[in-house]
Recover the amino acids of this structure.
């Protein structure tokens, strides 16, 4: 009897394993990816494509606006006039630079404001992405301007101190200075800057919070709490980050993610963000910044010499250490940034892809990862051409991310992360699953699509 029971159990186990392998064999990651992408409403797809493709032009227009404003300050001699005013107020070179910086940043902000208003307010409302009234947007813009005014002016004092003392090696010293300021900004941002724009509070208690903290602790993230912030006051985008540096590390996610995302999607996002920390991407960013800054400043050194020789007397710029020549630096840096766009995007996109892989392994939520990637359709074109992704994407495309998740899922034979049906495909493409908000079409002219973004932190998703 015992032998017969053992044989029966073995047969059941063998059948279960065989079914698991059959499911794995039937599961086609490419077909699963195509099915998920096909589930997106055509109107939603067209609208999201239009939004993101329009952003290609803003890369050019922002660079041209910056360069045009800089040239205007030079050719009207407004820049030399601002320098003269600073020199009339004080004899201190440092204070002269600071006062000039206040004037320069204010002038550049005013000159580029129309484009910023169109891009960040008008266009965001046209595509249903913003929750802000004009008054609220202007208030937040003014706050950002104030922070930039002080921090950038202080940086300019240090930069011109380096330029005047380091001679021909100024660009090397300026690189070190830029990296140092970047590190300080990262360290103080979670504590002093981010709370100016959003309210941060401990995430609501529950199983989801405990699972996020368990995942963080298992991967060595030095954080004992998870914070949520009210990004819904600004937009409908989903975001999260592990921010900070040198003891100020903080795990944060916004209220949109908690309200719109399923637990599986939230864990997938947080696994990705934890991946950035564990993989040392902040250190990589700092190292990359150092290299790019060195090349950019060397480019500036050549560009300044050429432009000053041609127009220096007309512009009233005395020499390289003259603050009146700052628009020349800004012009050449904007040009360098435009030309380097494919390189900088590819560097960031590589880090994001690495964090994606880490997040899949940490959270083990391939379906959640795939559906949250679908929600990027509001913000990012899902299925670009290869050249588009190379030039314009600082994150992997939706197709690339979903296919990665489906490939990961296919490899987890019989695992909990592989809830396949007998046909070999999980719930997302099934008819009942298409009722999920992640697959909802655009509704009405003023309504936002249901697809939400995982922006980058910014260094974000």
């Amino acid at each position: 009897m015992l032998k017969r029971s053992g044989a029966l159990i073995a047969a059941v186990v063998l059948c279960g394993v065989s079914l698991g392998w059959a499911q794995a064999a039937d599961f086609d990651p490419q077909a699963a990816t195509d099915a998920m992408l096909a589930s997106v409403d055509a109107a939603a797809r067209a609208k999201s494509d239009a939004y993101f493709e329009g952003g290609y032009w803003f890369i050019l227009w922002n660079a041209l606006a910056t360069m045009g404003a800089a040239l205007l300050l030079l050719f009207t001699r407004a820049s030399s006039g601002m320098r003269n005013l600073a020199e009339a107020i004080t004899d201190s070179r440092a204070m002269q630079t600071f006062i000039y910086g206040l004037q320069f940043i204010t002038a550049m902000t005013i000159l580029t404001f129309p484009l910023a208003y169109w891009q960040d307010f008008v266009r965001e409302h046209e595509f249903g992405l913003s929750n802000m009234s004009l008054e609220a947007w202007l208030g937040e813009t003014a706050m950002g301007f104030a922070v930039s005014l002080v921090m950038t002016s202080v940086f300019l004092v240090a930069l011109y101190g380096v330029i005047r003392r380091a001679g021909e090696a100024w660009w090397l010293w300026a690189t070190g200075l830029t990296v140092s300021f970047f590190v300080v900004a990262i360290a103080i941002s979670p504590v002093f800057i981010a709370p100016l724009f959003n309210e941060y509070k401990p995430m609501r208690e529950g199983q989801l919070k405990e699972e996020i903290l368990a995942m963080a602790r298992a991967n060595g993230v030095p954080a004992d709490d998870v914070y949520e912030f009210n990004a819904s006051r600004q937009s409908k985008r989903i975001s999260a980050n592990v921010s900070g540096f040198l003891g100020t590390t903080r795990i944060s996610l916004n209220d949109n993610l908690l309200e719109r995302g399923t637990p599986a999607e939230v864990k997938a996002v947080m696994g990705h963000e934890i991946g950035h920390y564990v993989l040392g991407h902040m250190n990589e960013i700092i190292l990359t910044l150092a290299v790019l800054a060195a090349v950019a400043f060397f480019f500036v050194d050549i560009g300044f010499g050429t432009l000053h020789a041609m127009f220096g007397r007309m512009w009233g710029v005395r020499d390289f250490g003259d603050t009146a020549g700052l628009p020349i630096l800004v012009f050449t840096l904007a040009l360098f940034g435009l030309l380097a766009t494919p390189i900088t995007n590819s560097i960031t996109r590589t880090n994001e892809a690495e964090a994606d892989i880490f997040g899949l392994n940490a959270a083990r939520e391939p379906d959640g990862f795939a559906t949250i990637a679908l929600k990027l359709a509001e913000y990012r074109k899902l299925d670009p051409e290869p050249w588009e992704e190379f030039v314009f994407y600082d994150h992997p495309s939706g197709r690339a991310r979903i296919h990665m998740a489906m490939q990961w899922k296919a490899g987890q034979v019989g695992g909990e992360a592989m809830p396949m049906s007998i046909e070999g495909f999980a719930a997302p493409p099934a008819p009942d699953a298409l009722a999920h908000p992640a697959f909802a079409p655009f509704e009405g002219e003023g309504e936002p699509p249901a697809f939400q973004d995982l922006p980058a932190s910014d260094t974000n998703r």
